[in-house]
Amino acid sequence: MAKGGGPLNRVKKELVQLQERGAVVHTDLRRSHRSLYEHLASLYIWWRSARDINGYLEQEYSSLNLKPRTIEGINFRPLLVLIWGFNATTPAQTALYSRTLNAVHNEYEAHPALYAKDGVAKLANFIEMAGGAIKLAGYGAQGDDEDDAENGGPSQKWSKVELDLKARERLLADALAYTNAASLPAVEIERHVATEQDADYVLMLVKKTPDGFKFVG
Questions:
Q1: Model confidence over 148-184: pLDDT tens digits?
Q2: How far apart are CA 40 and CA 147, in angstroms?
Q3: CA-based, 20 to 30 A from 159: which of 64, 168, 198, 208?
Q4: 162 in the Ramachandran plot: left (φ > 0), alpha (ψ -120 to 50) or beta?
């Protein structure tokens, strides 16, 4: 253990700075993820319009001189290379996001009326609620083998209940990360709060008032 006021105070000060910086980095990371989801959703919506123009995408793809590749589902690699360019992509990246876009396509085709308006925002929400582009693509899921992950097998399906649970888990994780980094003061809640079995934390909405804090829900 460090002795003396100087080193100890310095370390404590640096800890606070790191915690504050960690909160900022975490926020920036979430924003960058959200930007990716919105970009993939925009790319997919554009593809739906472009494919309806006879011969247009085929002409654009032909200039890329990509080797033919057979995968399960739609091969979105030419689209990704067309948008991002050769220098900004790798085969692993295009394989990953091609699978993500296939999952997005399946979702859109299953609920076209839902995405007819504000499709980009809603599809971005779908990707986020599914755990992100990587999880939606099926990478890292139980039962996936290396060959499936490499060659673009069927994407993982998520039920509404699973999505709701994952959203709650992410909200709780984000709340804990923020409060720990920001060193927020604790507030005593004088009422019984129902929690999940064996849960140490629960999410709630509390409003700050002139008289203190008011439990909202």
A1: 333 333 344 444 444 555 555 556 555 655 555 555 5
A2: 24
A3: 198
A4: alpha
| Mean pLDDT along residues 204-215 | 67
> Which has the closest alpha carbon to 97: 133, 139, 132?
133
Rounded to 5 degrees, φ, ψ at 157 are: -95, 145
Decide if 155 contacts 137 (C-beta within 8 A). Answer: yes
Q: Which tokens belong to 88?
A: 């900004």
User: 3-class SS at 211?
Assistant: coil
Structure token pair of residue 134: 């990587």
| C-alpha to C-alpha distances, 115 to 10, 27, 46, 119, 201, nearest whole angstrom | 53, 27, 13, 4, 35
Average pLDDT, the chain: 74
Q: Computed over its alpha carbons, how large is the radius of gyration of the chain?
A: 23
Q: What phi, psi does 143 have (nearest 5°)?
A: 95, -15
- Give the Å distances, CA to CA, from 41 to 69, 125, 175: 23, 9, 27
Cα distances (Å, whole numbers) of residue 62 to 79, 94, 167: 11, 17, 41
